[in-house]
Amino acid sequence: MEHYIPINNSLLVNDPSFQSSRSSPLILIPCMGCHLNDYSLVLQDARIKCTISIRINRLSVFNIFHRSNQVHKRYANLLLKKYFVSTKPLHFIRYSAHSIYLAQHNINTITPVHTSLSANSQTSDNDDIIKQLTLPIQSALLCKDFIKSSLIDIAKKFLPFTNFEFYSDGSVSNIGTINSKSGFGWLQTNPSIPQLSFNGSTIFFPSSFKSESLAILTILLVLPFYATCHIYTDSQNCIDIFNQKLLSPTISPRRRLKQNNFLIWDLIFWLISHHHLTVHLVKVKGHSNNKGNDQADALAKKGRISDDPILINHKFFQQSSLALFNYNHIYIIDRNIRKWSDTPIQSRIFNMAVNNSSLSPINHQITHGDIDWHYTKQWINFNPTDTPTSTKLRNIQSSKIKKSTFNHPTGNILQRNYPDLYPLGRINCTECSFDEDTNSHIGLCPAHRSAIEPLLSKFKQKLIDLIKDEHTSSFSFDIECRINNSNMFKLLPNILDTARQADPTTLIRIPREQPWILLLHHLIPRDLAVFFDNYFSKKNERSRFLIQFVSEFISELTTITWSSRSRSFKRWEKSLDITLKKKKNYRKNKSPSRLQPPLSADETPLIAPFQRRRQYTRYYHNKVLPYFKQLVNIDVSACIRWTTCNFLHSGTWESYRDSLLFNLDQFSPIQSLLDSYNPPRT
DNA sequence: AAGGGGTCTAACGACGCCCC
DNA sequence: GGGGCGTCGTTAGACCCCTT
């Protein structure tokens, strides 16, 4: 905010109009620049000379006189460009601000916690230097006390030296699983200095970058004032960030808070400037038989086992910190918050999507993980045309999405959308004329079975040939046997009929034993993906082959099912004289009829919302019609656990999503660990 | 020792906002 | 309207670590 100060009263003293015993008025003018100016704030308005930034959770407001007020006339001769006049004098405002502060903090006495550094400088005693040096270790780290004391011991032993050489390394195991552990280690290698080493572990957002950063940080923590050190690390990333930030020390808070692990990096640069350190980072190649690096690597692996993690206390930066986001009061999310927010948002969107009642026919498939979402995403995004956008592509995509969300315009959906155009009652499938014409019926329809069966065996043979010719994985035996045994290419009439003859009050469920039905809805079944995962070792190869195979498979399946259904449905529509023209004009014809009596203009707005409301309730709360809203029994809190998993461990949330039956008890070790040393609460 | 998986960056194109 | 700047999504590539 812009900094305003009271006008210098000496100017007013000479003014005869103020020569009175009454309280002097408070005139505020913009500050022209002072030590409080925050240069890191980049302002658009060049007229503002002095800006201050301060972290507050409450603002005290006081009133000012309006420009038109009589009071302003008294100051007209001062020729001030920009000023405000408070309705209350300065001392009154200061007094009320102080009492608000006391009331807010619920205190009567304030104990100063700051120990003045200038007082200590007189006695340059060793103990005092140690005390100053280890202040960051004591206050900036959150860990068990024995870790702090071991760091302080190292700092004491390093105190008489200035030139250091370190090898550092980080290590992360089982990344992307709930068992991920990250550790780091370093050792001092200058032969004239005690060759001490250190290792530790950390939690939250494990990545090798975080481990390596923490290794550098702990090195800097133990260095004495004015020390020089060379750090040999194998992380190109750390070196880049280090050099980049070193060259541009005045970085805006917005940019700073986007840096991953900014708590660690802020502390690193705070130490460099306050402890006057000279640091050089040197790149070494990992696993290149470098003795120091190998030892650091071993230390990092050892540190990984440690159950006592080291964290940064964000409150160390209370002077400069803006409001930081935390995860459920556990720990600060010290990375680009906008990027990170994508994770919970995506998982929530996914959870809402799979909980949608339209997908209830494949509810079992979703809960049992029968659908491979990774390949499904690739397939939905697959563009068979050679241009990025086209009408053709739009039609392909719209058909894919409608079919996959069970919203393809079948009888029941058309009846919902055009209630006056289609006949009342159940619209039966025009091909089998037994069951209702719905999205889920398409795979179960007995009319298509004779055509589907040869197609399945044709593509079974095609898959066997493809894998036999192109497989790259080490094990290639029993290809034929496995594919022959898979349900993927089997048509089981009994199971299909059982699914069809479901209780009419419950919705039809697609049988899990017939995964090929999922392909009709453009969802890739796990039963098919597993062959590609097993027999193709390269990631891009298996995607390419799978998409190609699926593309042909789905196109032929669609021809004999969806296309055939659509043709016969069109004939049926024609027999009832339902044409495309009528559908297109349906809304157009509807709306004038509603507004037809325009004679009473004040009456129409009352009618319109009422009618709309009735339509809404008709489809969402009437259980007889197919599309009433109902809760699907998928855990609503799943998205929270997926995100938590992503926060505590690593990897994409999708990797945790695929084990949908996730056990909440797996968090208890982390929770007990957190409880054990009283985590920061913000 | 090879390969997969993860993290991270740079580069690119596209787009929106702000200011001149 | 155009330039500057930031944002977003995607892709390629480099690197490291772990697993097999």
Give your account of this protein's structure.
With 682 residues, the protein is α+β, with helices and mostly antiparallel strands. Among the domains are: 4-105, no CATH class; 126-332, Nucleotidyltransferase, domain 5 (2-Layer Sandwich); 417-584, no CATH class. The chain is 46% helix and 8% strand. It has 29 helices and twelve strands. The strands form four sheets. A five-stranded mixed beta sheet has the order 7-6-5-8-9. The protein has a three-stranded antiparallel beta sheet with strand order 1-2-3, with no helix packed on it. Strands 4-10 form a two-stranded antiparallel sheet. Helix 18 packs antiparallel against helix 19 (479-485). The radius of gyration is 36 Å and the shape is flat. It binds a DNA duplex (20 and 20 nucleotides) through strand 5, helix 8 and helix 9.
Going by CATH, the homologous superfamily of the domain at 126-332 would be: Ribonuclease H-like superfamily/Ribonuclease H
Main beta-sheet strand count, sense and barrel state: 5 strands, mixed
Structural class: alpha+beta
Intertermini distance = 24 Å
CATH third-level topology of the domain at 126-332 = Nucleotidyltransferase, domain 5
Instruction: Report the helical percentage.
Output: 40-55%
Q: Supply the CATH class of the domain at 126-332.
A: Alpha Beta
Tell me the β content. Answer: 5-15%
Radius of gyration: 36 Å
Give the low-pLDDT segments. 13-23, 108-123, 591-623, 625-629, 677-682
Descriptive labels:
alpha+beta, Nucleotidyltransferase, domain 5, flat, DNA-binding
